[in-house]
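Backbone geometry tokens:
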Amino acid sequence: MRIAKPLLAVTTPLGVAIGLREAWRFHWWLAVLMALLVGVIAAFFLVTLRRIRAESAPPRDPPR
């Protein structure tokens, strides 16, 4: 795990970037659709991460 996490953190964005470049070379609109898909997945990931952090935070005092 000590080697795998940094390796994945580096190779995954590189693979996505290379995939976008190859999609652009094949058809430009395919690269646009692929970039939109990556953006939607990233947005859902961030929403899920915010929800997890909000629910695991200690409860705040209610206003008086």
The radius of gyration is 18 Å. The chain has a mean pLDDT of 91. The chain has two helices and no strands.
